[in-house]
Amino acid sequence: MRKKVLEVKDLAISFKTQHGILHAIRGVSFDLYKGETLAIVGESGSGKSVSAKTILGLLAGNSIYENGEILYDGLDLTQVDEEAMHNIRGSKISMIFQDPMSSLNPIQTVGKQIAEALICKLGMPKAMAKERVIELLTRVGISEPEKRYKQYPHQFSGGMRQRIVIAIALANDAEILICDEPTTSLDVTIQGQILELINELKLSRDLSIIFITHDLGVVANVADRIAVMYAGKIVEYGETDEIFYDPRHPYTWALLSSMPNLATSKHLDAISGTPPNMIFPPKGDAFAPRNKYAMKIDFEEQPPMFKVTDTHYAATWLLHPDAPKVELPEATIRLRENRGKLHYGK
Asked: Structure pTM?
């Protein structure tokens, strides 16, 4: 039986803005198991990063905790004080952010920045910390680590800076690694290298990873399970093969249709319309105004999570027994026909 290392239950987070209360997270629940990669996918503003930052207590001062629990190692992280969170953050649960330059101090050497995590968190002597930093730099694929130890962030490429951030995140042997769009600012070749590195580290250290991205293709080859988010809710989740080859929510269909792959036809389908204004959350299914398959009930009532398999669920009224049958999008049909033949993210 797999060990559950993190459990998020019915999480609801809002923000005070000058225009009103913005409902960013609306009842999000998911589990993370030992040694797995859970990808959280959705457009900008869907609530992916807010969910991740809530886990580490990194929300802005205008945030409002509405409801929910985040259970880790017998603790509810929504209720612990800052001292307890400080002991968890970076030591037990670490995070890699999208832009490595904003995560690194430009006037400190990279060696000092990695060593700081060891000295401050573990009380490690400086000489021992330096040895450990050299090991970490080597582990994340940085050549000439003794020389690089003394260099500054601007002396590294974007891909190398992201490797340094990964080294900092893993310095204290964290159990959970949260990756918030870690490859977005990198070119395709470097993206593939970083994804391969993260996957190698997961396997060698038995890490549990939450991988946040707007691009399903990025995680196709690294995720064990995928949760699709829209307007502050998880609308579909399942094992990776289930999401790619048997998707059930129209939003997942739209994401897959807008994603290039080896089966792509002459054009990509854009997702029409715009995400809803979450200061005024919609009454029914938030995706209904953009959904060509929407029925009357979609505009009146939010759908529950319907069970597809023991591991696959989707919140769409199309799964109701009385719903009409619809013709699947061409992209979904192509993916099924080419199952096992396609590669993404590189």
From this structure: 0.92
